[in-house]
Amino acid sequence: MPLTLADCIARDGGNASLRGLRERFAPGAPDTLYFDANSIGPMPADAPARMQAVLQQGWAEARRRGWNELDWLEQPAKLGAAIAPVIGAQAEDVRVADSTSINQYKLLRFALALQAPRRVIVVQRDVFPSNRYAAEGIAQAGGAELRFLDDIAALPAALAPGDVAVVALSHVDYRDSTRLDMASANAQVRAAGALSLWDLSHSAGAVAIALRGTDSDLAVGCGYKYLCGGPGAPAFLYVHPRHAEGAWPAVCGWMGHADTFAFEPDYRPAPGPDRFLVGTPPVLAQAAFAAAAAVWREVDPQALDAQHRSLGDTLIQLLDEQCAGFGIELASPREHARRGGHVALRFAHAAPLAQALVHHGVVVSARKPEALRFAPHPLTATHEQLWTAVARLRDLLQREAWRDPRYQQASV
Ligand SMILES: Cc1ncc(COP(=O)(O)O)c(C=O)c1O
């Protein structure tokens, strides 16, 4: 029996533990359905008030005293602790700071320092550009040798020479949303004496992740996507405690010094993961992220995972039933455990079709060459919205609306 609108509405009645959290987010523009959590997650409703408080009490009134009187310097650890459960980490092992690209660089270099004299970085050949660029930059400066991975099945061969320092893996492919098996990859990496560095940008805040449970070494990820930290939010980094004090950080700055305000001439790394902090934190951005952190403290990661699964499976079923025969096909794995945050479709005219959908109030994105990405946020999207979105998609496909010259210009 094909899914009906009533079935979708009924599915929205499930998952009691997340109920109520949806109301903690701002609704967005009227008549607009947002499936772009892989780009910028929804805004917690109290984010503006929190930012306003920092502007007024912190900037207008406290100014320099804000550093002493407010918790600005504690935020990297507080925000890290709030998101730790959803990535399966201990609260004290996560920090929120800098961007994902910078954290990727910092932890690649840190891994190389831990693993000397090994100097090989294994990195995916066809991956989110920054991941590869960071490794290439280190190699260009003479700090490492690169070995490219074309497929996860080739990991044993890449590790076989026994010279690998670190394997950098994107947990979820940013185009087709294929999710790697973290436990299996970590076991192979560990057996070869190497370290794992995961980019969790397309899974953190969407599905339950078990960094400690799978014995991952290092991880980074975006704060502005499913974690709802706000546009340009700082990223997170995770370092397994067995490594945190094993070497100096790659970028030594005063915020990572053992005694920041002693202004000592010599660098001494702070204990634990505080050493990975570098410079002055982005106080306003942290205030926005703190609104999301307050929500994350209440989220049961298993309930989040179940809701993500329900939304993704429903979307795939609706697409199967309503959009067959239009030259559009599922690009993501069907099995939830192998799928990351979004559901991707393959369509020859993905970019103009995405623009047509946006124009009709369904905010999705496209990535070269043919990926059309739907990323419902598990805390805010509903099954009913998916029904409406797929009905609009079907209508656009029937009318071949993607041919309209208005939709031919490139968009982010
Ligand atoms: C998988 C992945 N890694 C890294 C990044 C870049 O992160 P940042 O801009 O914070 O450096 C992105 C951005 O979309 C991404 O999708």
Which CATH class of the largest domain applies here? Answer: Alpha Beta
What's the overall average pLDDT, rounded? Answer: 97
CATH superfamily membership of the largest domain: Type I PLP-dependent aspartate aminotransferase-like (Major domain)
Helix and strand string, N-terminal first?
Answer: HEHHHEHEHEHEHEEEHHEEHEEEH
What CATH architecture label of the largest domain applies? Answer: 3-Layer(aba) Sandwich
As a whole number of angstroms, the C-alpha radius of gyration is: 22 Å
Choose one word for the global shape.
globular
Oligomer: single chain
- The CATH topology of the largest domain is Aspartate Aminotransferase, domain 2
Strand content: 5-15%
Unreliable stretches, pLDDT < 50, 5 or more residues? Answer: none
Structural class determined from secondary elements: alpha/beta
The distinct bound ligands, ions and cofactors come out as:
pyridoxal-5'-phosphate
Detailed description of the structure:
This protein is of the alpha/beta class. The chain folds into 2 domains: 5-45 and 300-398, Alpha-Beta Complex (Aspartate Aminotransferase, domain 1); 50-296, Aspartate Aminotransferase, domain 2 (3-Layer(aba) Sandwich), CATH 3.40.640. Helices cover 34% and strands 12% of the residues. Strand 3, helix 6 (129-140) and strand 4 form a beta-alpha-beta unit. The longest helix has 22 residues, at 301-322. 48% of the residues are buried. The protein binds pyridoxal-5'-phosphate. Pyridoxal-5'-phosphate is lined by residues 99-101, 128, 130-131, 170, 174, 199, 201-202, 222, 235.
